[in-house]
Each structure stands twice: as C-alpha cells, then as structure tokens.
Design brief:
Layout (H helix, E strand, L loop, with lengths): L4 E5 L5 E3 L2 H7 L2 E6 L5 E5 H12 L6 H11 L3 E4 L5 E3 L2 H7 L4 E7 L2 E6 H13 L1 H7 L5
Antiparallel strand pairs: 1-7, 2-6, 3-4, 3-5, 4-8, 7-8
C-alpha cells in the first residue's frame, strides 16, 4: 500500500528521482500511465496486473470499455530505475501531467499519483477546504 507525499525536480530530459520509500513497494520494474484529473499513475507490477484484471472483466463489446482500455494501456510504459534511482518519463506523459520542474509523488493506496507540484498544491488546498463535507457525504466513520 502506498501513502505519503514526496517532492523532486524533473530534469530537462524528463528524468526524476523516485522516492526511496516508494521504490521498495514498486519493485524493480513498474508501470507509469496517464491518470485522471491531470496526473500520472504509477503501479507496481502486481498492482498493474490487478488493474488489468479488473479491466478484463468489462465487456469488450461495449465501446466505453474499449475507450477505457485504450486510454490507460496505449500510454502505459514500463519503467526501471537507473543507478541514481531515476526514471525517464516520456514526453507524451509529461505533457499530459504538465510536468516541467517540480514533481509531487502522492501515495494513494494501490498506486502512486505523479503531479506537477504547483497543480498538486492547489488541488490539495482546495480539497482540504471541503474534506469534512466529502467525508459526511460518504458517511465515513473513523
């Protein structure tokens, strides 16, 4: 399970250090793909296979299923860490998440989200403002 918030710079070639605490759970090889809301998703091999298994259960005869599968799988790349603990995020994925200078890695249960830090900071601030209402809406009990 992933959790936590980590920040690193991305260089002009698209390389970024993956936080040490995340590397252990990700393993030697992992997958990065487009995410929702303007971020990227990073999955360990095991979690990526679990995600793929979920998508396999959807009826392929439905246009929406094919669209969802294409969205995540056409853009997915398998990554391995270099000797400095970095990965190369391809240009198309960097463009999707608007990654230019500072990157936020956000641990989120079965995956890690990768955000432009400025975008993440704004989203986090907006979310904090009304989190109590969202918790009430889902009737979460702590």
């Amino acid at each position: 399970m992933f959790s936590g918030e980590y920040f690193h710079s991305i260089d002009s070639k698209g390389r970024v250090i993956v936080p040490v605490k995340l590397r252990e759970a990700l393993g030697e090889s992992f997958v990065v793909t487009v995410g929702l809301d303007g971020c990227l998703y990073m999955y360990s091999g095991e979690e990526w296979n679990a995600f793929a298994d979920k998508l396999k259960t959807l009826p392929e005869s439905k246009k929406e299923t094919r669209q969802i599968q294409r969205y995540f799988f056409a853009r997915a790349v398998t990554c391995e860490l270099d000797k400095q603990g970095r990965i190369l995020i391809p240009a198309k994925l960097r463009e999707h998440a608007k990654l230019v200078k500072e990157v936020a890695f956000i641990g989120l249960l079965s995956k890690v989200e990768i955000w432009d830090k400025e975008t993440w900071d704004k989203l986090d601030k907006d979310n904090e403002a009304d989190i109590a209402d969202k918790i009430d809406e889902f009737e979460l009990i702590f």
